[in-house]
Design the sequence.
């Protein structure tokens, strides 16, 4: 599955520009589903039929965070605006890759030592810029006009048990679903797999994806920032390698107790390690599904992740395999 993780995370496809990643996923899944379609927003929805008459919706967002060019100055330096939660501190010194392949580096302003020091302390999108190596405004406008989208440029790294990538959020969730499709023969319930768009800018895709489906249960697959690095969020309890996270709550939703009990039961029965997650910030697409129609049993399964929303998100490969196993067992047993 590492090959899949490498290929799916190295694609550049930020929120609102999901064409590249959608194309890749369609190729991966088309032989394993009964049907698939793309809605007007760009959500890719695939169906694998079961026999119980119940509907289980599983979602992972296929977009990733990024930036967009907002201004080009007379010397060809670019100003940018964020797409999703991107920190100027994380951007500084990184390479950005535009969808046409152009690469730029991120620098910051400062006309004196004092001003440089002050800007470093108060880094913001107002005092950083992107340099694509243009020698004039015209050249920059040619290469990366206002409105051009970019993502971090960073290679996938296979460290054996631990893996690093720019976009495990949430391509690892997409990979869980692709792998599930390849491994499962006949799910008990009708399986609706939603590869959703624009999660990072406000759970946009999930807000419409279940409109015609009316699922009996909806599960969002996503990453969760790991509190297991030095002095990091001592009020939280999960760690890399400790197994799938069954979310209890985050800032946007409280998982349905039916979901929590069901997933716990399946994990226990199949000797899959699991951890209960109480996240003191953030939110997932579970929120989007929970409040649709007359309401849906919704929850999130997440993978513990260090350095979320940086070019170097780190996860544990055993957690990857255990999440696929948990999903597979759930589909085999039914909701
Ligand atoms: Co995210
Ligand atoms: Zn995410």
Sequence:
């Amino acid at each position: 599955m590492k090959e899949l993780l490498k290929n799916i995370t190295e694609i550049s496809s930020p929120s609102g520009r999901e064409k590249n990643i959608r194309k890749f996923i369609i190729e991966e899944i088309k032989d394993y589903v009964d049907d698939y379609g793309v809605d007007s927003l760009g959500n890719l929805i695939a169906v694998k039929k079961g026999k119980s008459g119940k509907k289980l919706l599983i979602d992972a967002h296929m977009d990733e965070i990024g930036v967009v060019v907002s201004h080009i100055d007379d010397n060809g330096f670019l100003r940018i605006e964020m797409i999703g939660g991107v920190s100027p501190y994380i951007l500084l010194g990184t390479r950005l890759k535009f969808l046409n392949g152009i690469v730029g580096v991120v620098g910051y302003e400062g006309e004196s030592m004092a001003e440089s020091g002050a800007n470093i302390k108060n880094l913001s999108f107002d005092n950083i810029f992107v340099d694509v190596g243009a020698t004039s405004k015209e050249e920059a406008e040619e290469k990366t006009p206002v409105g051009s989208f970019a993502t971090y440029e960073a290679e996938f790294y296979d460290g054996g048990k631990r893996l690093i990538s720019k976009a495990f959020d949430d391509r690892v969730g997409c990979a869980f679903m692709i792998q599930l499709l390849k491994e499962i023969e006949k799910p008990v319930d009708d399986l609706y797999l939603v590869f959703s768009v624009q999660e990072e800018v406000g759970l946009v895709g999930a807000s419409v994806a279940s409109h015609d489906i009316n699922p009996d249960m909806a599960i969002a697959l996503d990453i969760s920032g790991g509190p297991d690095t030095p002095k990091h969020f001592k009020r939280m309890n999960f760690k890399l390698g400790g197994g799938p996270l069954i979310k209890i709550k985050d800032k946007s939703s409280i998982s349905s107790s039916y979901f929590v009990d069901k997933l716990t039961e399946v994990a226990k029965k199949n000797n899959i390690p699991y951890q209960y997650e109480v996240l003191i910030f953030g939110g997932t697409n579970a929120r989007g599904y929970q409040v649709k129609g007359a309401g849906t049993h919704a929850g999130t399964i997440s993978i513990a992740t260090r350095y979320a929303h940086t070019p170097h998100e780190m996860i544990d490969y055993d957690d990857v395999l255990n999440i696929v196993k948990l999903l597979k067992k759930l589909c085999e047993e039914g909701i």
